[in-house]
Amino acid sequence: MNRTSSSETEPPAIVIVGGGTAGWMAAAALARLTPCAVTLVESEAIGTVGVGEATIPQIRLFNQALGIDEAEFLRETKATFKLGIEFVGWSHAGASYMHAFGEIGAGAGLLPFHQLWLRGLELGMAKELATYSLNERAARALKMQMWRGDAGHSVPDMPWAYHFDASLYAAYLRRLAEARGAARIEGKVASIERDGKSGDIAAVALEDGRRIAGDFVIDCSGFRSLLLGQELATAFEDWSHWLPMNAAGAAQSEPTGPAVPYTRAIAHEEGWRWRIPLQHRVGNGIVFDSNHLSPDGAEKKLRDAIDGPLRTDPRLIRFRTGRRKRAWNKNCIALGLSSGFLEPLESTSIHLIQRAVIRLLRMMPAGEVSERDIAEFNDQQLTDMIQVRDFLILHYKATDRRDSAFWRQCATMDIPDSLTQKMELFRETGRVFRKNDELFVENSWVQVMLGQGILPQAFHPVAKKMSDEELSKFLEMLRTNVARTVQGLPAHHAYVAQFCGAKGVAAA
Questions:
Q1: Looking at the domain that runs over 13-53+165-240+321-369, which CATH code has it been given?
Q2: What pLDDT digit, counting tens, does each position of 158-181 carry?
Q3: How far is CA 127 from CA 131, 135, 137, in A?
Q4: Per the residue annotation, which of 82, 330, 397, 422 is the catalytic one?
Q5: C-alpha distances in angstroms, 130 versus 15, 100, 470?
């Protein structure tokens, strides 16, 4: 990277191309946590996809690092709480299970709870796994509280995430970033200036002739990947043979009842639909493979499924699953959609932005960019993408559905060896291992694999160390503690209204 600063010791000037969720997450973090001069270029004339209205609990750590007051943030984004995701019709038509956040039950020594549960299941003394999950029981009961467990650890923490308006979140972060010195420039990029020696991006030129120069550039231009993909010609690795979805339709509707504290992912013959409840509206969407369902057919299917009056007509979004082979190329890092896209199934898009922003902060160059930093960044980014990719593929591969060409294709497709190993290890032994600090913990894999119909053939032999009577008492104690805790929690809609009710939104 050729530094344009007057001194190598001065912090770099960073130019962000594109706003939206990715751009303003980066700008807010850089403005608060680094001495860098941050300039963000965006145009009101260019729409944003609005990545994600549903999140996972890790976003709370990002917001805390930015010094964000949680209640204020929830009011400003008209958010509700999210305790997990309900999957309807995935293993077979009419089936339902939940991927809930947080612990399930409690382990014994080094033995995870699900191994004890599997033994209890064999003995006929274990209830459904969901009865030992505080998050799932609370979600099903439409209850919510910022519960952080009890002193005796007989009931675990109840981690939460959010449903929010992505455009309002971007606007909120913009206000924070600008207050901390980030500059926003309105305009469209007309051309890109490259350094003749290094090939780095030296500046972007706007349609009105302004030139915005920087030492480092961040591409947040969405699917266009204006800098990383188009200008630097960074190759794209297509993953559509594993994740065949290539289109989505989204529409907003009026709520017809209190917002539930979970996201719904409802499978249909050619893909799935989402339902995300906010304080003031409901986000609805349909994700599909256009080789099996036409856009018109998808729109009709979506409209037919929405139970409240429409606030917006369905908007079609086309995409291709996969990733840029280098997220960091020369002096350019791509964040969000410009670096690749999986799909919205497990609400990972914002988290992957968050991980990349944190990774950038950790590897922020103090002078000349180290090729070792670039290589490490790209390797970690690839690891993140592969681990999330495999988890998403699991939902499609492990299914008994054969009622349409789409599901037959999914059930018979070849999958990565890494996923085959994970699935078959669980099927044969009940064992799950989390590798390299991957996003999805053991409980996540257990819930989805069981929910998709993979039942282990064995359990860990150490589970037999506990006597039948001890195991029965242990399981009943955990189940009872969860039920008692849930009973004492307030209703989700009442808690939202009290803690973070948005102005102008009537309490349900």
A1: 3.50.50.60
A2: 999 999 999 999 999 999 999 999
A3: 7, 16, 13
A4: 82
A5: 47, 9, 21
| Side-chain-side CA neighbours of residue 182 (13 Å) | 27
Name 264's bridge partners: 86, 275
Q: Using CB atoms within 10 A of its CB, is residue 148 exposed (0-12), middle (13-18) or buried (19+)?
A: exposed
Q: Among the residues of 398-441, which ranges form H helices?
A: 405-412, 417-429
Question: Domain residues of the chain, as ranges?
Answer: 13-53+165-240+321-369, 247-318
Cα 414 from Cα 501, distance rounded (Å): 47
Q: Which two tokens stand for residue 480?
A: 């009872």
Asked if residue 327 lies in contact with residue 378, where contact means CB atoms within 8 angstroms, the answer is yes
- Torsions phi, psi for 495 (to 5 deg): -65, -40
Q: What is the DSSP letter of 336?
A: G
Our measurement of the distance from residue 508's CA atom to the centroid of its chain's CA atoms, rounded to an integer in Å, reads 27
- Residue 462 structure tokens: 């150490």
> Does residue 489 contact residue 143 with C-beta atoms inside 8 Å?
yes
> Which helix or strand (DSSP H or E) is residue 359 part of?
helix 349-362
pTM for the predicted model, two decimal places: 0.94
Catalytic annotation present for 82? yes
Tell me: the pLDDT tens digits for 88-129? Answer: 999 998 899 999 999 999 888 889 999 999 999 999 999 999
| Buried b / exposed e along 32-65 (16+ C-beta atoms within 10 A) | bbeebbbbbbbeeeeebbbbbbbbbbbbbebbeb
